[in-house]
Amino acid sequence: MTDSVLRLAVDDRGEPEIFHSIQGEGASLGAPRVFIRLSGCNLHCKWCDTAYTWNFNGTPFEHEDQIKFDRAEEMLTQTIDAVVSRVAPLNPSGIVLTGGEPLQQQAKLPALIDAIKSECGPVWTEIETNGSIRPTDELIARVNQFNVSPKLAHSGNDLKIAQRADVLARFAELPASWFKFVIENEQDLAEVTTLVRTYRIPADRVFLMPLGRDPETIRARSKWLSDICVKMGYRFTDRLHIHLFGDTRGT
């Protein structure tokens, strides 16, 4: 039995946001996954679509929605055993630990992953991270895929925190890492190019994704961004879950 406690986000019913869906972005796009959304983040992107995991009442963070959330209503704690009891009935072939920023709680993640695999078998394990917290060797040994999304200047974050050289270098050397950059306009591409060259990230492990929280915006940006990917040798990723379900929790 594992009684370590995790901080989780909640869905629209006030339950832990643990759900079975398809991966909407990146290298596993379209694959069935069970998502476990952890609460809390060390970065605060002004366009974040999961701001309910960090933009709580009393915090100084800015967001384009200009909405603050009640921490007590949006965050709950669950033991690892309780999380596993919700994941196991979904019979996952793969799991995604997402957030927020999961690596804020990385000391507890190896035990969570081990417990899920003990109950469910050798499930594929992904972690979605902003790439600003260095993963431990203990965690790396248990993760099949890191979906690393370094934040660019347009996110509104302090880049000294968001783009830590030692952390990005570590992720770049891991075969399990895939990099996803959120693109608002063509000016963002120079920043991507600098990061890719600085950390020697292989072009075929780089995804460009249009910034957008509704299908219309995503489609409009996709038209020119896909052409950029062809020219630069990067991969393009859609936000498939937005097209299918909209900007909603638990999808």
Which architecture does the CATH hierarchy give at level 2? Answer: Alpha-Beta Barrel
Query: Do you know the CATH topology?
Result: TIM Barrel
Give the class from helix and strand content and strand pairing. Answer: alpha/beta
Beta-strand percent range = 15-25%
Flag low-confidence runs: none
* Count of separate structural domains: 1
Tally of contiguous helical segments: 9
- Net shape: globular
Summarize the biggest pleated sheet: 8 strands, mixed
Question: Which homologous superfamily in CATH is the superfamily?
Answer: Aldolase class I
CATH class: Alpha Beta
Mean pLDDT: 97
Helix content range? 25-40%
Q: Helix and strand string, N-terminal first?
A: EEEHEHEHEHEHHEHEHEH
How do the strands of the widest beta sheet line up side by side?
2-3-5-6-7-8-9-10
Report, as a whole number of angstroms, the end-to-end distance: 29 Å
Number of strands: 10
Radius of gyration: 17 Å
Short overview:
By secondary structure, this protein is α/β, with parallel strands linked by helices.
